[in-house]
Write a structure and sequence with these properties.
8 helices, 347 residues, elongated, 2 domains, nine-stranded antiparallel sheet, alpha+beta
Length: 347
């Protein structure tokens, strides 16, 4: 009996010792555990030194580079990049945490999207440089399983460049793929209510002039209607004044380097009630629609003009000068309306 009574306390002591060991392991500092799980554990200390991001996607390779003034796209004439695209991406890469190891067999890469990027794949390689020829971090971003992980984090399949092993990591990555994804895609925003007169002239001489008789008038009228013809319904005329409202680009080029046929340009001159004169030149070129701008005059102070509109006016010339923008065809068509399209025989 005595031996049996001794066994029970011994078992209890062993159980308590095991429980204490487990609790002590769980009580280790969470920062230490996270740091060990980070995909790039030293990257957090190198973020301020990152000066180049190389992107490989869809068969294209380009860089995003930091200069003394701003981040820019050197292959696009130094077009400025939004820092709001740079900072979150670098932080998100730093915070990626390893969940589990995946395949190390090349024949299985495509299933996870971690094969080498090519014209036929939709994945992306990101490489971060901090001055040295070798990147401080380089990874192929593959498939994403949205909200797979705790904390609404995504599960992302990745493979480090030069390594065979693929990984499932937890985190979030909003990866810009094309150069235009890094920039402010809005070229210009001219509110229709500011437009007093619009004159569209084609190379063959066809000219359309619409204007409002007074500020605040509900509709535009055609000012140069030919004899015997009248303008169609206002619903077909008024939208032309929105030609420069929230106009966005699909791509940008240095105008001087483009070699486009400028003599074929259609001009659309927007004159505002407050003194601006913005000319949009559009050309159909290489099966796409392109536009460039000339800005003249200066908007007079208006008590009802929002501060952001005033800032846009002040920056217009500097932001648009020297650039050529590819825009959606439908938006280009608004800037290329013809007089004959808006007229019909008088009743």
């Amino acid at each position: 009996m005595r031996s049996k009574t001794l066994v029970i306390p011994l078992l209890a002591l062993l159980f308590l010792a095991g429980a204490y060991w487990l609790l002590s392991q769980r009580a280790s500092p969470p920062e230490h555990r996270v740091e060990e799980q980070r995909l790039f554990p030293r990257l957090a200390t190198q973020l301020n030194d990152i000066e180049r991001i190389r992107v490989e996607h869809g068969g294209n390779l380009y860089d995003v580079v930091k200069t003394a003034e701003h981040w820019q796209l050197p292959d696009k004439g130094g077009y400025p990049v939004l820092f709001e695209r740079i900072k979150p991406l670098l932080l998100d890469i730093t915070l990626l945490e390893i969940v589990e190891a995946k395949t190390d067999k090349a024949e299985n890469y495509a299933r996870l999207g971690v094969q080498a990027p090519s014209k036929k794949s939709d994945n992306t390689r990101l490489s971060l440089y901090a001055g040295a020829p070798a990147p401080v971090a380089s990874l192929i971003v593959g498939g994403v399983r949205t909200g797979l992980m705790a904390g609404a984090r995504d599960g992302i399949y990745i493979r480090l460049s030069g390594e065979r092993r693929a990984w499932l990591v937890a985190g979030h990555l909003d990866v810009p793929q094309q150069p235009v994804d890094w920039v402010d895609r809005r070229i210009i925003h001219l509110k229709p209510k500011r437009v007093h007169r619009l004159t569209i002239t084609h190379p063959d001489g066809d000219t359309l002039v619409i204007e409002k008789p007074y500020q605040g008038a509900p509709d535009y009228t055609v000012r140069n209607a030919p004899e015997g013809l009248v303008a169609k319904h206002h619903a077909q005329i008024n939208p032309l004044a929105r030609g420069l409202a929230a106009l966005k680009m699909d791509d940008m080029l240095v105008r001087a380097d483009a070699g486009l046929p400028q003599a074929e340009a259609v001009t659309a001159v927007f004159e505002t009630w407050d003194g601006l004169r913005i000319t949009a030149y559009t050309v159909e070129w290489n099966n796409a629609m392109f536009v460039w701008f000339d800005v003249a005059g200066a908007a007079r102070d208006a008590p009802d003009q929002p501060p952001e509109d005033a800032q846009l006016d002040n920056d217009l010339h500097d932001r648009l000068e020297g650039w050529l923008f590819r825009i959606p065809r439908a938006r280009g068509a608004t800037l290329r309306a013809r007089l004959t399209e808006l007229m019909e025989p008088a009743p």
